[in-house]
């Protein structure tokens, strides 16, 4: 959860605080500006719906003690704790969706919190225009729904596309969502026809044993390589010929924004939200009907065999990148928070 505390909202920046259910490590993974206060609801790792009422009570205490005016839920599932506080504390709640309206990975009651947010939240933020429409068409929200994407990092020095590369990369957690099982099936069609190419999968997860078995059965273990977790992602992007994503569903896939920032041609399943707002089909990449393994293999073959097309796609990757610019996104959040604060 992210809280906005303090007074003069008309003169941003605001006073910011982070509120976490708990913190597993003494230091956060990413550096946090020291001016941002951090609070935890529980001093130790605490999971489970059985703690629901205690969690709401503890969060209410923090909201009151810190004079929180606006709570931004980082993932709308946290609405279940924030929305009950509105009546008692007057806090404004902004529900920030990080998947999409139809997806409930691992948490079936997420769909209930989305409907609750549609009735009671002060605003809903989606990552894509497609998901904004899903909310409006299905939940009929009583509050504004605003699409604000995550930012795309600008790379320095500016990447130079390596047209001679013979490496395909994919990355992500090795889970059902990311569709790496389908990726193995695609690679089994592509790689034997191109023995001088290799395909690297960057990431770790519970599906590794299953994927290792599939790769061995397909006989492509020398070309399709599970690299595991890597710390130097930028090096792999700079040395790749293209990026491939086989996800079954996404919110707004950061891996595609990273590939785009590194000027890589992209081949991606066009899952319900995300890829179509990053990739322009036939302009800087290829969008494939979800789950169409044969077509995905054919599109990758096309790019492997057509260096000129790869170079053209690379040259046009940043044509529509302004909507992912950090300054643009900060301005959108400032407008939203100013709007919410005006009725505090």
From TrEMBL:
Keyword Cytoplasm: no
Glycosyltransferase subfamily 4-like N-terminal domain residues: 34-151
Signal peptide: none
Pfam families linked: Glyco_transf_4, Glycos_transf_1
The UniProt record lists the keyword RNA-binding: no
Species this protein is from: Bifidobacterium miconis
Keywords: Glycosyltransferase, Transferase
Name the record gives this protein: Glycosyltransferase family 4 protein
Transmembrane segments: none
Domain named Glycosyl transferase family: residues: 162-315
InterPro entries documented for this protein: Glyco_trans_1, Glyco_trans_4-like_N
């Amino acid at each position: 959860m992210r809280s906005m505390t303090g007074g003069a909202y008309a003169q941003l920046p605001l006073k910011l605080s982070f509120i976490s259910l708990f913190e597993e490590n003494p230091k956060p993974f990413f550096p946090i500006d020291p001016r941002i206060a951090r609070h935890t609801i529980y001093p130790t790792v605490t999971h489970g719906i059985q703690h629901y009422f205690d969690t709401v009570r503890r969060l209410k205490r923090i909201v009151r003690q810190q004079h929180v005016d606006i709570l931004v839920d980082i993932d709308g599932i946290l609405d279940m704790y924030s929305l009950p506080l509105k009546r008692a504390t007057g806090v404004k709640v902004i529900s920030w969706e990080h998947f999409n309206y139809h997806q409930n990975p691992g948490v079936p009651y997420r769909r209930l919190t989305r409907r609750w947010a549609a009735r009671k939240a002060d605003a809903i933020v989606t990552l894509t225009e497609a998901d904004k429409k899903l909310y409006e068409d299905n939940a009929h929200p009583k509050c504004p729904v605003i699409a604000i994407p995550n930012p795309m990092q600008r790379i320095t020095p500016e990447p130079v596309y390596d047209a001679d590369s013979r490496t395909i990369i994919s990355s992500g957690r090795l889970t059902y969502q990311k569709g790496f099982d389908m990726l193995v099936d695609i690679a089994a069609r592509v790689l034997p026809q191109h023995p001088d190419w290799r395909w690297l999968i960057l990431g770790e997860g519970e599906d590794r044993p299953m994927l290792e078995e599939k790769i061995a059965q397909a006989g492509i273990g020398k070309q399709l390589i599970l690299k595991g977790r890597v710390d130097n992602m930028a090096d792999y992007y700079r040395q790749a010929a293209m990026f491939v994503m086989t996800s079954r569903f996404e919110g707004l896939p950061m891996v595609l924004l990273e590939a785009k920032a590194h000027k890589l041609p992209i081949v991606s399943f066009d899952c319900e939200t995300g890829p179509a707002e990053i990739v322009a089909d036939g302009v800087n990449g290829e969008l494939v009907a979800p789950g169409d393994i044969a077509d995905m293999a054919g599109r990758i073959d096309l790019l492997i065999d057509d260096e000129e097309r790869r170079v053209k796609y690379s040259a046009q990757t940043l044509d529509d990148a302004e909507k992912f610019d950090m300054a643009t996104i900060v301005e959108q959040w400032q407008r939203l928070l100013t709007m919410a604060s005006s009725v505090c």
